[in-house]
């Protein structure tokens, strides 16, 4: 992973040169994930990930945030190629194993936090409904 501020201006993953789907596919490849692996991590169908990468559809905001976390890239990079993203092909530097392990743990924690936040939102919604039903 590199800061793509300069690489984006060089054009490799910019909006002019790459699509949202191109950036998703590149980030997924950089993480050595298959489309099926990514779908499983996000809790979506394989067909959904394929649609994103083929630019036939786009994820909702909550899935976009999860996608960013799982792929370890910024939301802005996914959307427009600017910010923290993956290095252009041929510009990949080898990450030491200990640092890679830390990055993997951070991604896992981020994913767990996102799932926990979604569970909390669902519980709050259920509580609001129960309170409304009780008041009625």
Q: How would you portray this structure in words?
A:
This protein has 136 residues and is mostly helical. It folds into 2 domains: 1-93, Orthogonal Bundle (434 Repressor (Amino-terminal Domain)), CATH 1.10.260.40; 94-136. The chain is 65% helix and 3% strand. It is built from 7 helices and 2 strands, in the order βααααααβα. It has a two-stranded antiparallel ribbon with strand order 1-2. Helix 3 (35-42) packs across helix 4 and helix 5 (61-71) runs antiparallel to helix 7. It is globular, with a radius of gyration of 17 Å. 21% of the residues are buried.
Short description:
Helix content is 65%, strand content 3%. It is an all-alpha fold and 136 residues long.
Quickly list its features.
136 residues, mainly alpha, 434 Repressor (Amino-terminal Domain), two-stranded antiparallel ribbon, 7 helices, 65% helix
């Amino acid at each position: 992973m590199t800061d793509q501020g300069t690489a984006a201006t060089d054009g490799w993953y910019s909006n002019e040169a790459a699509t949202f789907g191109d950036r998703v596919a590149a980030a997924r490849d950089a993480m050595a994930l298959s489309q099926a692996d990514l779908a499983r991590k996000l809790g979506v169908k394989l067909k959904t990930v394929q649609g994103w990468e083929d630019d036939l559809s786009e994820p909702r905001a909550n899935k976009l945030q999860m996608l960013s976390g799982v792929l370890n890239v910024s939301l802005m990079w996914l959307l427009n190629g600017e910010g923290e993203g993956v290095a252009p092909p041929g510009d990949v530097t080898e990450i030491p194993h200990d640092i890679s392990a830390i990055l993997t743990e951070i991604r896992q924690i981020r994913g767990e936090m996102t799932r926990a936040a979604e569970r909390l939102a669902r519980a709050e919604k259920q509580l609001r409904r129960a309170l409304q039903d009780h008041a009625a």
